[in-house]
């Protein structure tokens, strides 16, 4: 793992910083340091326009291979981009799921025709995606999926019925990738398929889930004979589990740097408040701030270690640690934010009781160790898939 930067890399850093300074201004100045976890419902239309500005600068898919329409940036250059994006206050990415998850999956498993249809719209910041994985009875236990899909009479369309839950930004998305059961009577990870489904159709209903923070970036999504073309199946019928796991491998890849970008901004806010209100003088709080800083560095170095291998969606042993590590770190940051604020953490000015960013951070991080795979499930994955220990009795 090489974590040093060459003179050419540093010149590239100056280019990125200058571009961000030029473009994150005017109407987009209001987006600075906004739209991260717990704040994802902030100004979605403006953030979509920002994605198109990024696309014109060729920063969307900048790490994708050139033959896929990307810039083919090296890992070092991608790290630099995310660092400078964070330093400039770049907002949370509306296109993250398309660029970081489904795009690489289509590039790896899709047909040439599927790549030509779907990848350019992601790179242009025109199509936004959501993830149809979790269900009320299939969260951490993803293999328990009940949503089903079957071909119509002439095999031209897949018809999908079922329910997904905790679907981030489904109400702002053009497409959803859906893991559905296409083999009647199948169980577990067998008989699942990976489908690309357009959201703008009568057979799909999106119902927001209001959270403790008052925001509704998560949704329930109901499919009632929703349809998608038979050519929108990625891979073969029954290969859905393999493709879904590869997508999770991409999620543990370069996109982790963007997540850490948001974490750094939040930690910077905590440090700023501690210096302003005197909390930094408390030796215990000062030690916790230092632990948060060092913990974020560890997350970064582990990400670089993950990125030093093949970017093919395989879940390397060090990647199995990442979800448990970041969710635990972020949970503790939320607690630290409240303790640094002191009594002010429990005050609200009055109706409509708008939360401060630190209060929203604290409330939102309560869910971090649950969504995307609970900590208990993550420990099983580490034990069984990374350490080769005996599987849990089922």
From TrEMBL:
This is Acyl-CoA dehydrogenase. Residues 8-125 form the Acyl-CoA dehydrogenase/oxidase N-terminal domain. Residues 238-386 form the Acyl-CoA dehydrogenase/oxidase C-terminal domain. Its cofactor is FAD. Signal peptide: none annotated. InterPro entries: Acyl-CoA_Oxase/DH_mid-dom (IPR006091), Acyl-CoA_Oxase/DH_mid-dom_sf (IPR046373), AcylCo_DH-like_C (IPR036250), AcylCo_DH/oxidase_C (IPR009075), AcylCoA_DH/ox_N (IPR013786), AcylCoA_DH/ox_N_sf (IPR037069), AcylCoA_DH/oxidase_NM_dom_sf (IPR009100), Mycobact_Acyl-CoA_DH (IPR052161). Residues 130-225 form the Acyl-CoA oxidase/dehydrogenase middle domain. It holds the Pfam family Acyl-CoA_dh_N. It comes from Pseudomonas weihenstephanensis. Belongs to the acyl-CoA dehydrogenase family. The keyword Cell inner membrane does not apply. Keywords: FAD, Flavoprotein, Oxidoreductase.
